[in-house]
Specification:
Chain B: Belongs to the ABC-3 integral membrane protein family. Chain B: It holds the Pfam family ABC-3. Chain B: Keywords: Membrane, Transmembrane, Transmembrane helix, Transport. Chain B: InterPro entries: ABC_BtuC-like, ABC_TroCD. Chain B: It is a multi-pass membrane protein. The structure holds two protein chains of two kinds. Chain A has eight helices and nine strands. In chain A, β1 and β2 form a beta hairpin. Chain A starts with a strand and ends in an 8-residue tail after the last helix. The radius of gyration of chain A is 18 Å and the shape is globular. In chain A, strands 5-6-7-3-8-9 form a six-stranded mixed β-sheet, sandwiched between helices. Chain B is mainly α. The longest helix of chain B is centred in the first third of the chain and has 26 residues. The N and C termini of chain B lie far apart (50 Å). The chains are: A alpha/beta, B mainly alpha. Chains A and B meet through β5 of A and α8 and α9 of B. Bound molecules: adenosine-5'-diphosphate and magnesium ion (MG). Magnesium ion binds next to α1 of chain A.
Amino acid sequence: MIENFSVDHIDVYINGEKILDNLSFSVQPGEMLGIIGPNGAGKSTLLKVILGVIKPQNGTVEMTHSDTRPIVGYVPQSRAIDEEMPIQTWDFISLGLPHRIRPWLTKKDRILIKETMELTDTSRLAKKSIGKLSGGEKQRVFLAQALVRNPDVLLLDESTANLDPKAQEEITSLVQELCTEQHISTLFISHDIHLVAKYAHRVLYLTRGHYSVGRAQDIIENANMDVLYQPQHVHDALQTSVENRRYGG
Amino acid sequence: MLHYDFMQHAFIAGTIVAIMCGAIGVFVMARGLSFITHSFSHIGFSGASFATYVGWDPLEGLLLFTTVGALAIGRMGVKFFRREASISVMLSVFLGLGILFLSLSTQSGSFTSTILFGSVVGISSRDVWVIVVLTVVLLCLLTLGYKMLKFDSFDPVGAEAAGLPIRFISVAFLLLLSIGVAEAVQIVGALLVFALMTIPASTARHITQSVFKMIVVSAVLAVLGIWVGLTLSYMTNAPVSFYITAFEALCYFLALGWSSLKAKFQPIGT
Ligand SMILES: Nc1ncnc2c1ncn2[C@@H]1O[C@H](COP(=O)(O)OP(=O)(O)O)[C@@H](O)[C@H]1O
Ligand SMILES: [Mg+2]
């Protein structure tokens, strides 16, 4: 479990262009933070900064764990999988295990893989080649690969885009369950304002040069969402978010 | 035939090189490096020619040129060299260089054909030792790097996301590959290393779905190819590389046929 997870006053420039401007927020253990905002706002960039792939020019990302180094699970926005090269689903998931040098799997590894596959409902895909799975099945497998390392922090970059509404709900509610049970702090980017309102404990609304963070209800009510979404959707999402205020404020 | 020293040497060196080529080949295919492998063997050809020109052992020239080539390619990025144009430029330049060195040196034409098409008779017991030691080191490194290499080859985005040192993995693999190519050139020749590195792995891909089994199948097919090639070549005097490529190609088409048959007769819904 993560003790302290905060992003403090970070500035990020890419090719001289300011992408993130003095951004600060913190995330509680087991909290699900939804991230919304237009294309190009810097949402993916933010996750990469947290991951350590992009170094911010100013500011810091603080992530401290009670005893070890915090483990981060990350599902990137896009993935190039060669459909011709077969790698079986269980093997693909096993790649996410944290060991790097040992070429074989221990019994403990195998149990972990099996449990993760049951959790993400991918057991029946175990022997299938990853290239042959449907979009939704792949998303579950990607999630499983990120989860198999028992992360303290989970970063999901539009992981449920391209899925049918039912699958979106299933995966997101599964993630929420895991977060709460295993105290995983989760950041998930989504364009689905409904999903965010329903499952995120708090919301970060990010645009170029501005951001606001708070309860889903407040963000959706106060930020100028009509730029992004139809007024009716905003209204519906507001209704949903009222029931979900665990980490409010 | 095995009571001849040279045949023993050919069998030992050939088998070991085949295991290595088969194993590395799976990652060559997964990383889309088949034509870079082909370029390495051409770089190796000019290295070997250079070695004879300055009076070194051919393997030394081969190793020098291919490893420097690997570092250069790694430095500039594999993406650049995957482009068709870059590959054709590289192939021609190094083939040309090789021809230049050969014409400058006093070696006979038989050396040229050995390096281009491979040879089974010229392998000394010292060569065998060098090949064995190099291959064992190579396979150990491959075993240690297996997990990371597999991750980066089959799921590059995921590997980067998981924080693996992908740049290092890429360069390290190119280096291993370049050493492997240098070794194999001596047995099957510069023009056909490519065949031994890519065909068995492609065949394996149609036979099995698991990465580890693919490596095993690929290595076995490569070894069988060498054995069949050496035996038939001994009996008929035709070049060993011809039999090796013919055997590997036959296996490939059989596997292709088998996998499409299997797909056809698979009951719907499974
Ligand atoms: N590697 C990169 N090179 C150049 N520009 C980039 C790179 N990565 C991101 N950007 C730019 O940064 C901005 C934010 O991108 P991104 O974080 O992917 O946005 P979002 O995920 O919110 O849609 C975009 O304008 C994009 O063009
Ligand atoms: Mg993005």
